[in-house]
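Sat 14:20. Reprocessing the chain from the morning session after the first attempt stalled halfway. Input below, unchanged.
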Amino acid sequence: MQSIAHTYPTYETLAEAQACTDFAADRRRVAPVQHYATYHEVAGVATRRAGGWTFQGDGGADTWLVSYKDVDLVLLGRCDLADAQREADTLAGGLAANVCGRR
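Finished this time. Tokens:
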């Protein structure tokens, strides 16, 4: 049986090796899912947790733990997807260009 030679990266310094390891570890972390939301007429961000949602109002320091069954929590859209779409719309000329059909 033939063996396949593996090439392993060589690092000039210990700091370079540590930076590469840190980058790999960061890629494995999963960020919690966040949604723009309203809760009792307060706008903010809801973050999914094991027991439900945590809600933090815009500009507020208070955080509330909200049940999955609470009808007062209204999820408006995932933050990452909404922010990406806003950036794409801006690059395409803004909302007015999209509505008027100009590109």
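Residues 31-100 form one domain.
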